[in-house]
Amino acid sequence: MRIALDAMGSDGAPTIDVQGGVQAARDTGHEVVLVGDQTRLAEILARENLQGATVSIEHASQVVEMGEHPAQAVRAKKDASIVVAMGLLRDGKVDAVVSAGNSGGVLAASLASAGRIGRIPGVHRPAISTILPTLQGHLFMLDIGANTDCKPEWLVQFAHMGAAYAEHVLGISQPRIALLSNGEEKGKGSTLVQETAALLESAPCGLNLVGNVEGKDLFRGLADVVVSDGFSGNIAIKTAEGTASMLLRVLRDEIKARPLAMAGALLAKPAFGAVRKRLDFREYGGGALLGVDGVVVIAHGRSDALAIRNAIRVAISACERNIVQSIRDRLQKVTALPDSSPA
Amino acid sequence: MRIALDAMGSDGAPTIDVQGGVQAARDTGHEVVLVGDQTRLAEILARENLQGATVSIEHASQVVEMGEHPAQAVRAKKDASIVVAMGLLRDGKVDAVVSAGNSGGVLAASLASAGRIGRIPGVHRPAISTILPTLQGHLFMLDIGANTDCKPEWLVQFAHMGAAYAEHVLGISQPRIALLSNGEEKGKGSTLVQETAALLESAPCGLNLVGNVEGKDLFRGLADVVVSDGFSGNIAIKTAEGTASMLLRVLRDEIKARPLAMAGALLAKPAFGAVRKRLDFREYGGGALLGVDGVVVIAHGRSDALAIRNAIRVAISACERNIVQSIRDRLQKVTALPDSSPA
């Protein structure tokens, strides 16, 4: 398998991305194609131990920066690393694309004319997904940012795409599907949530619906797949990130202010380490962009080499489990049965 | 001053509510009117030390339960504690209402015919607010649940009402106002956020706008007032609650799994206590329902006596600072200058 890595993507690019790419190539035995400035990438590669790692470079002279307007940037920069990477996928030269860059840019590149892989036929809108830790295990969530304003039928498709991913890539049989809402009770929620719930209930099409999930219950493991519009989903995951980082910061400050607590914290260090490992986004690598006609994985901008490596592993397993075909099959089945439930 | 407390509100009602009410009466020197089942309230009161506390009972035979549909319940239960409490406020018999009950029920009671205090003239929609801890201090946020689907002009009013509260009740001069969004960059956000931003920028009317704030930056103290629709705002605060509780639970589990870490945690106990105190919602008591023509404070359903006491303190300080008049004045000024900025 060959995975294209947008090597100019992360906040620490290209060094971090190259290091993660080399690690992934070595650990998985698959080839990683680093896409970006050839000279800089070659320089960084020269310092890495490449034994057992198949790594190549594909030149791209431009970069879509974090602050840029995604669609405009992708249109203007035809030689941007993410556009070139997407072109390799479209042309069948690689099996997947991984990027820790501007997530809007990744989405735009997948749909723009230059690198266009396009949508799976019948897909209204692609959605960005992520995996989050819960008290019981994991949670698959989408959309977390691709579509700020959504229609109910888009969310219905997100539910099906999420179910396909949970089943085929994560190996969860009959994944429990919930809608993110402001109350678990039926009838709660925005108009969008209520209309989506009504559509889903009238034609569940094999979905194992478990109702609404509130922000406070997100991490209690009540659902395997949580569906939301990209605006609320983004607010949920970023608020979770912000809360965790504030809490750990406050804890550190209060411990540091007390010598005895400092001593105690030293004894408790392995426990803190275990917490960090269980909750660390880097362990999950990245979230798949679902609905596009190819395997694309978006990693966190603040990824380190470990996170990049893990994002590449996510891409490889999505390829192995043939997620694109699974989504295609499921959506075809749903479209064939618009008003009835096979369940 | 006389504060009506819906004594049937919290999850631990009426005992918890009565205890909190008695504490507040003693600590503040103001009278607390307990509204609820007279017999039960009298029984609980008989076990309390009432020295230095002026507490009375107003009978109400019904309760709006947590799971009920707010508007329907309020219409059907004319003798519900929250409806009776609101009637006391409408009739000028008390200065404020505090409830830890169904927040939709509190909102509905304030607008329904039975206990109607109604909106401040010109207010599109009342909003539920809350105070949250940040790394730097506090954050005032609204709407967190009254209005799931909002219009831009409602959010503009939320911004003005939030500014009035921050200035007059919290004592923050020129409070920094931000919109909750999925990206801090201008041009990011849902259609609602973008249209609200455009309206605010075209007529800031004395607001100190600082742009958009993302979930991950909510607790970094970048804004004093964060404005959102009730759906996203609810998701943000509940996700924060869920994240904090998961993190502390995971930390406890990992510590308990290690004897040495257990010993360390004992030494660090005062630090943990300090963290809990800094981040505990109970310290903030409750959030004002803004836009209604009277002082109404909604406390968390999981309030204990301390939280109830603090919610009553919030109500007293909102009365003392005359928040209703401040909002009235500000909205009049804004309406008088629809297309120009006095700033």
How would the global form of chain A be characterised?
Answer: globular
- CATH superfamily annotation of the largest domain in chain A: Isopropylmalate Dehydrogenase
How many separate structural domains of chain A?
2
Could you describe the largest sheet of chain A, including whether it forms a barrel? 11 strands, mixed
- Fraction of residues in helix of chain A: 40-55%
Notes on the structure:
The structure is a homodimer of 343-residue chains. Chain A has 343 residues and is α/β, with parallel strands linked by helices. Chain A folds into two domains: 1-123 and 291-343, Isopropylmalate Dehydrogenase (3-Layer(aba) Sandwich); 131-280, 3-Layer(aba) Sandwich (Isopropylmalate Dehydrogenase), CATH 3.40.718.10. Chain A contains twelve helices and eleven strands. Chain A has helices spanning 15-28, 38-46, 70-76, 81-90, 103-111, 152-168, 191-202, 230-256, 259-267, 269-279, 305-320, 323-336, and strands at residues 2-6, 31-36, 55-59, 96-99, 127-133, 138-142, 176-180, 208-213, 225-227, 286-290, 295-299. Chain A has an eleven-stranded mixed beta sheet with strand order 3-2-1-4-11-10-5-6-9-7-8, with helices on both faces. In chain A, helix 1 links the parallel strand 1 (2-6) and strand 2. In chain A, helix 3 (70-76) packs across helix 5 (103-111), helix 6 crosses helix 7 and helix 6 (152-168) packs across helix 12. The radius of gyration of chain A is 21 Å and the shape is globular. Chain A starts with a strand and ends in a 7-residue tail after the last helix. Chains A and B meet through helix 8, helix 9 and helix 10 of A and helix 8, helix 9 and helix 10 of B.
